[in-house]
Amino acid sequence: MNKIKQSSLLLQILNGKKSNKTPIWLMRQAGRYLPEYQLLRKQAGSFINLCMNPQLSKEVTLQPIRRFNMDAAIVFSDILTIPMACNRNLKFIENVGPVLNPITSKNEILNLHIKDDQYLMPIYETLTLVRKELAADKTLIGFAGGPFTIALYMIEGRASKDYKKSINFYKNNREDFLILLKKLEIMVTDHLINQIKAGAEVLQIFESHANISNEYFKEFCIEPVSNIVNKIRELYPEIPIIGFPRNSKNNYIDYGLNIDLNCISIDQNIDPKWAVKNIKFKKNRKLCIQGNLNPAILLKTKEDILMHVKNIMNSFESINHVFNLGHGVIKTSSIENVKFLIDTVKNWEK
Question: What is the dihedral of CA 142, 146, 149, 152, to 10 degrees?
Fold first, then answer.
């Protein structure tokens, strides 16, 4: 079982300790904006091959740490590895994104299972390899998608702006939809626990499609994730967990109150001052917020970056804060601007 490393700034902040320094890592910090990533991506032949090759994915995971010296490495993987392991024929198509065989019937849901217990083993091997090379003051993050987000991809067959297939499926097959969510809840729980066993010291749950109406938010986004977190807490109470219900607007409040999180990550559409005032945690856990620079700011000038960093840092000055983006690094971001952001935050003192 992992023990809390007090030398890690990120772990200190996530565990409620105070510091005059703010830890920083970035969603999609390993990726297409880095030339060294492009070389390994070409060598692997496909995105999936890169994710599932422990030696190559280890290198990709470590690339931004070597270049920028941020405070955490997040394992190079994808939220759709679970449907891939369920034999849904996942492919990543240029300028389209992930595409997979959509679920269309109850039988497909009832028969849904991970085809081989060893199928996701390369991800766990990557975590173990990274932890061996990662400095003691750097934290290793494992992650998974929320059950609702994964379910949407599995029903739609690809990313969707209106979720029409999923809405119709739910209206016509509510019981089947809930069975799918429960199955994914169990798979996500197991996947995250296996990542802890492999060396992950922090977990993040990405609910990337949490922008749904209030009437469904509790059943789809809160209850499954709360069950996952509670199960992990039973086995690994010392592992900090970050939740990211992206674009959930005022529902960030209910998410924080009803899930036993160490930290909640907010997107760029949330006013930091509003977040500090309104988001609260259950069990009197000390508030910690992650975020929330708009990734598009990295496409602008250093002056623009500095202005937005100042606003975010000053807004979160009174609470524990992990600096991050409101979403992933954009592939056209300049390395110089990313370095400027990292250096600015690391040199900032409260």
Answer: 120
